[in-house]
Amino acid sequence: MNAPIEPHRFILEPFEARRFANLCGQFDEHLRLIEQRLTIEIRNRGNQFELIGDPKHTTSAENLLRRLYRETKGTELSPDLVHLFLQESAVVELDNHAPAEASVALRTKKGMIRPRGLNQLRYVKEILGNDINFGIGPAGTGKTYLAVACAVDALEREQIRRILLVRPAVEAGEKLGFLPGDLSQKIDPYLRPLYDALYEMLGFEYVAKLIERQVIEVAPLAYMRGRTLNNSFIILDESQNTTVEQMKMFLTRIGFGSTAVITGDITQVDLPRGTKSGLHHVIEVLKDVPGISFTHFQPKDVVRHPLVQRIVEAYERFENRDEAPKDTSRNA
């Protein structure tokens, strides 16, 4: 007969009723979320906590609760924020044997941005240490957002002179001349995720000023031909929708003092049937070239609503099932 698991006990201090209400959430929803993700039971009376479950999970939960309690000094917690911290703290999702890595903070006018989780941290460090970087994986893993944060940080530190945001307008077949409006009006809808990140980090008015001064430039991929980009931070988003020729053209635009980040999801290609994705091709061609980094994100790295992670995983399982080789031995 197994002995009962000894509860893991600790006290959070100093006790402040407002901060504890913030920590626990409405109807203890933050505690319930932690219980569900770490498969433990949380009991508390005031600031005295008792955790029941696997010792690794309860230790992880204590560390998480202490971090969240520190956040309550100046932050209104939400289920989304708790989920982000869980990405870093869940023992079921992180490799406990991996060496500890120092955190990185990126400077923006609206505050510091820190990567969430080990893979995001490695991604940011690769961007800071290499001239050409690829972030590959499903939506919601932060690959585009962190690329923009790195660009803003480099601009704030005067390491670059401008930021270029580039995206293949595959939905318009790159034939932007047939769309109404000037270049900005034609390409803006395709760059909305990049704009949203810039507005969050720098503010709408400041971004507008930088665009007017051409410190921030937006351009369709088709308009990059013939240019050499020096002292710039260039982000190519949705790169799975580039052709092999377009990807080669883009990569050979990189000049002195520049950093490029190419993001994409090789499972979401919108190119015409029979056209090979430039992203898929470049992984094979450049995987061993020094100075070029590849960071691959997995569904577990998704930092949006927990349901998004489960949706991504479900689609992945379904697509893998469809791609499984069929048994042709029947009737042989």
CATH class of the largest domain: Alpha Beta
Write down the CATH topology of the largest domain. Rossmann fold
The number of distinct β-strands equals 11
Instruction: Choose one word for the global shape.
Output: globular
- Low-pLDDT stretches are 90-100, 171-176, 327-332
Question: N- to C-terminal separation?
Answer: 55 Å
Radius of gyration: 23 Å
The share of residues in helices is 25-40%
Could you tell me the strand content as a percent range? 15-25%
Number of domains: 2
> How would you characterize the largest beta sheet?
6 strands, parallel
CATH homology-level superfamily of the largest domain: P-loop containing nucleotide triphosphate hydrolases
State the secondary-structure class: alpha/beta
GO cellular component, one term: cytosol
Keywords: ATP-binding, Cytoplasm, Nucleotide-binding
Subcellular location: Cytoplasm
Main location: cytoplasm
Concise structural overview:
The chain is of the alpha/beta class and 332 residues long. It contains twelve helices and eleven strands.
